[in-house]
């Protein structure tokens, strides 16, 4: 080394620095750069994405598989599957002794096969939904990666994992998670075949997935993704896919599979479900709330209902929707950007179609989640890959993220109280450490907005979404399950029965009972009885008197309103409230009743 270098080190040493400190500093800097390069490479590769998304998927969709069937027709579908397995009738579905034409049997076949492999349990009933939800995450990732980059795919998949709609409904033993996966894989097939050179065979995969979606629920599983793709071709005036052998081969496979499926199910099912049921759902409401489509558009869930609830259903990512749509608008997608056009059609087209359906439920929005996720993934792609920060300088972006900070603070501090009021969940269900970590994350998000560090702010949104996901999965759902689930209520009632064969009795009409309650009473406890069913209050009370006189005393369930209005004023009956079970908008009581004459 030249002597000047040693002179420099000697001078530095005389000023209070050592040679070792200089070399250690350079070494530390080099190691830091190498670590940053490793983390950046890890986070942008398939292995890194697979590890992160796979781990989060286990938490999101498998952590609570074993808890009680919870709601949203889980119990209804479980009853159909249980009857199917018990009777061995796999084509003519029945529910409570009557033929069930509301849904095709494919979903119930999947549940039945799962219970055959793993035994009869809540986890086995939910397993198909959980697996298909993971399939939705994977398909969304590859759509984003095919259209733009691994960054777009990763953040889009993270949106699917952490949005309220997919997180809450994704593991439930219902049809919608499976339908969503089939429709998303169908879109993936079109995207890979059209935007990736030499991959036309993906058309076949896409149409096979859409065929399974139609078998599981309805033909809109095929119609919506296909019309989305054809709309893109029409705008671009591009008929190239229609000249592909793979496209027509896939379409032929689709009609072949679906035709064989409906031929196997028979003409009766075809007429009742495919024609009558679908026609009624297009023109009027079904279930407990009857009415025409026009009445539905201005009723309890009007035509604009989804425009209101999507802010909650896609939380916390919904705050980025305006910025994402603004980014697409400035890109002028219809002119020269087919990928952006495809995303815009996907989000807006699905939203319009779902809004036009008379019957609306939050879970029906599940097929829309991947489209919204790809839109958010595109936004992250523009920020982290192309470094285009034009949209971030707008006041809309900062205002929406500032609003998110406020909403998150409200959630962290008020959610335990709200859960306590609505479900009677103990307010200490949330550990203080979790709340502190979430508050720190909210503070970092706010600080990044003040310092105008847009990329940091976007990353903090993802971390807060992941934290919220853990809160829902680890604390909220188990907390509700522990104090208010149908299985918990059944177990508590059983502890007050004289014998294991004594029926679980309920009072008067069934309108306050969930499908899940009925499933546990009829198919798990296997003994259920309704006193005064279909009778007015006076006749129902007389039937209850006769039941009490015959049994001496009995334990029966009813709502607090029924108890206060009908049973408690009865002078000849002595009643004691054994337990209270809190449900949203109602309280269910377990009552011990005996005749005053017997006592």
Describe, in plain words, how this protein is organized in 3D.
The chain is α/β, with parallel strands linked by helices and 599 residues long. The protein folds into 4 domains: 3-43; 48-390, no CATH class; 394-481; 486-595, Translation Initiation Factor IF3, CATH 3.30.110. It has 26 helices and 9 strands. The chain has helices at residues 3-14, 19-43, 46-62, 74-87, 106-118, 122-147, 150-162, 164-169, 176-195, 202-216, 220-236, 245-265, 267-283, 293-297, 305-313, 321-331, 333-336, 338-356, 369-384, 395-423, 432-450, 454-484, 486-494, 515-524, 537-551, 560-567, and strands at 94-95, 98-99, 284-285, 291-292, 504-507, 528-531, 553-559, 573-583, 586-595. The protein has a 5-stranded mixed sheet, with helices on both faces. Strands 1-2 form a two-stranded antiparallel sheet. The longest helix has 31 residues, at 454-484. 40% of the residues are buried. The model is unreliable at 1-43 (pLDDT under 50).
């Amino acid at each position: 080394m030249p002597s000047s270098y040693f002179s420099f080190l000697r001078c530095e040493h005389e000023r209070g620095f050592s040679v070792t400190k200089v070399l250690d500093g350079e070494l530390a800097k080099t190691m830091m750069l190498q670590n940053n390069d490793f983390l950046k490479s890890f986070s942008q590769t398939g292995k890194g994405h697979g590890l992160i998304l796979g781990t989060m998927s286990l938490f999101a969709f498998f952590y609570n598989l074993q808890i009680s069937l919870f709601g949203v027709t889980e119990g209804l579908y479980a009853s159909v599957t249980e009857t199917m397995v018990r009777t061995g009738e796999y084509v003519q579905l029945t529910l409570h002794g009557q033929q069930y034409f509301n849904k095709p049997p494919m979903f119930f076949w999947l549940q039945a096969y799962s219970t055959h492999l793993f035994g009869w349990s809540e986890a086995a009933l939910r397993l198909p939904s959980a697996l298909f939800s993971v399939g939705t995450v994977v398909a969304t990732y590859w759509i984003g990666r095919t259209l733009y980059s691994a960054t777009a795919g990763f953040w889009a998949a993270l949106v699917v994992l952490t949005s309220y709609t997919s997180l809450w409904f994704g593991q439930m033993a219902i049809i919608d998670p499976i339908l969503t996966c089939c429709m998303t894989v169908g879109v993936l097939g079109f995207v890979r075949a059209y935007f990736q050179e030499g991959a036309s065979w993906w058309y076949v995969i896409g149409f096979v997935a859409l065929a399974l979606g139609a078998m599981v629920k309805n033909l809109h599983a095929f119609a919506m993704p296909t019309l989305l793709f054809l709309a893109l071709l029409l705008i671009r005036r591009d008929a190239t896919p229609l000249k592909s052998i793979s496209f027509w081969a896939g379409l032929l496979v689709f009609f072949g599979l679906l035709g064989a499926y409906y031929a196997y199910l028979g003409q009766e099912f075809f007429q009742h479900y495919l024609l009558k049921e679908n026609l009624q759902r297009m023109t009027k409401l079904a279930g407990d709330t009857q009415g025409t489509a026009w009445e539905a558009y201005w009723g309890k869930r009007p035509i604009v209902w989804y425009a209101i609830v999507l802010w909650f259903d896609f939380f916390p990512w919904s705050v980025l929707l305006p910025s994402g749509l603004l980014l697409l608008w400035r890109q002028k997608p219809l002119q020269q950007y087919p990928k952006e056009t495809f995303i815009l059609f996907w989000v807006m087209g699905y939203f319009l179609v779902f809004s036009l359906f008379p019957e609306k439920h939050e879970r029906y929005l599940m097929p829309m989640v991947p489209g919204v996720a790809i839109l958010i993934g595109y936004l992250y792609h523009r920020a982290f890959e192309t470094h285009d920060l034009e949209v971030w300088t707008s006041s809309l972006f900062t205002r929406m993220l500032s609003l998110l900070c406020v909403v998150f603070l409200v959630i962290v501090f008020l959610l335990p109280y709200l859960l306590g009021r609505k479900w009677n969940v103990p307010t200490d269900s949330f550990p203080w450490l979790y709340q502190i970590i979430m508050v720190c994350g909210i503070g970092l998000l706010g600080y990044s907005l003040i310092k105008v560090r847009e990329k940091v702010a976007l990353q903090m949104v993802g971390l807060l979404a992941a934290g919220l996901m853990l809160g829902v999965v680890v604390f909220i759902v188990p907390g509700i399950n522990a104090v208010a689930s149908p299985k918990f209520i059944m177990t508590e009632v059983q502890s007050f029965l004289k014998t294991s064969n004594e029926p679980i009795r309920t009072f008067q009409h069934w309108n306050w009972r969930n499908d899940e309650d009925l499933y546990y009473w009829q198919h798990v406890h296997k003994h259920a009885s309704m006193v005064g069913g279909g009778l007015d209050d006076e006749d129902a009370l007389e039937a209850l008197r006769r039941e009490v006189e015959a049994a001496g005393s009995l334990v029966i369930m009813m709502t607090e309103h029924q108890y206060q209005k009908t049973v408690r004023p009865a002078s000849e009956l002595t009643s004691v409230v054994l337990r209270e079970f809190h449900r949203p908008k109602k309280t269910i009581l377990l009552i011990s009743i005996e005749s005053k004459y017997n006592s």
